[in-house]
Structures are given as structure tokens and as C-alpha cells.
Amino acid sequence: INPKSESGWPLPDFQLETNPVTGKQSLVIYRNFADEAPNGGREQFLGLLSQAESGVRPIADNGFVGAGTYSMVPRNAAIVVVFDDLIDPSTINSQSVRLLVGEPTIIPFEARVFPDPNYGGLADHDGQPGLEFYSTRLIVDPAVSEIESFNSDPTVAVNTIGFPASQEANLANVELRFPLIDQLAFPFLAIQGIRGPLSRDAGGAWCPEGAHLHVPADADRLDA
Hints:
By secondary structure, the chain is mainly beta. Helices cover 8% and strands 27% of the residues.
């Protein structure tokens, strides 16, 4: 959602709540979603949800060499990475998605990394009858509650704050990396699609065996 402060979500439409136990924040939209009448609660809810999502800011791909002006995000903001193909969830791990923090960004940082359950498509990839859901988006969440830590596999340390604070606006203090692997002498992302290798040069899309591609730097940087 739009990275506003708590006062930026006024009643009677919204309320930004913080759980006193977990420290997690939730945006409540006060509409009856079960009301399907014309201009009823569901229609109003979807309109307000679209309004809340409209301020989401894209992160600029600045590479990982040198200084410059980097994207700013709240410290507890979840980062969404969009691919052009269905992601194989078995390839999402600490080796295929890496976070580094600091100035310079050399310190490994632990976060929850998981496929977005709300965006994707259906495919038959498990060899069993019927279609399964696979996501096209990856969520990187630096703020981890006790419950989320307990339910993570592998376990992720509790972190109610999120990313470390930036000390210098012209230096990135968070680096998100997608390591590359070499298949048939051509590099692809370590994270895979259900059909096989993904190329960052093709926007995270599947590439058939033997494709010749130029792959640029394998990291994005930002300020938290």
C-alpha cells in the first residue's frame, strides 16, 4: 500500500492498526465486502483498495556500482519483485535471493522471501491430475513477527523494525541480489520458472534451452 503515516489513513474509510503483540501493521478498510448491491460495500471496498494501492512506488534499478540517487522505502516495507513467468517455489531460497545491507552493502540480511499468493496462474507441474497455482511475484518482507518467524521454513529471526536506517541519501544501504548460474555457458537466474531457466534480460521470463542472451548486473539497490 501507499507508504503513508498513520495520520494519512483517515476515518471513516481507513484505519492503520498496529498489533501490540506482533508489532505488525494492517490497513483496515471499513466497508461490507459481502454487500454486492450496485455501489454497495464490495464496490466501494474495491475502489478504496485501489486508492490505497495507487501510491505504491517502483524501485529504480540502479545496479550495484558507485553512488547516486536511490529509491527510498519505509524500513518495514515489503518489496514485490514481478516476473514474466510462473515461479518454481522450490527454487526460492537464500541462494537464489540475497539481501545485503550497510554502507557499503556487505552485511547479509535475513528476511522472509515467499511467492505472492494473490498473483499468478494455474499449471500442471507436479505430475498429479489437475492444475496447481504458481505465483509470478516474489515478496521480500524485512519485518518479521514472532508468528511469522515460527511459521517460516527455514526459520527467520524476529525483526519488528525491518531494514536498517539509511545514514546517507546518496549511498544505497540495501542491496537485493538475484544470483546467476551458468547453464550451457549462458547465465540465468538461480531462481527458476516452472518451465525452466529465467533470464533477467528478458524481464524474468522463461528462456528455451540454447537461447543466447546478454545478462546485465545482477543487483538492485535502494535506501531504507
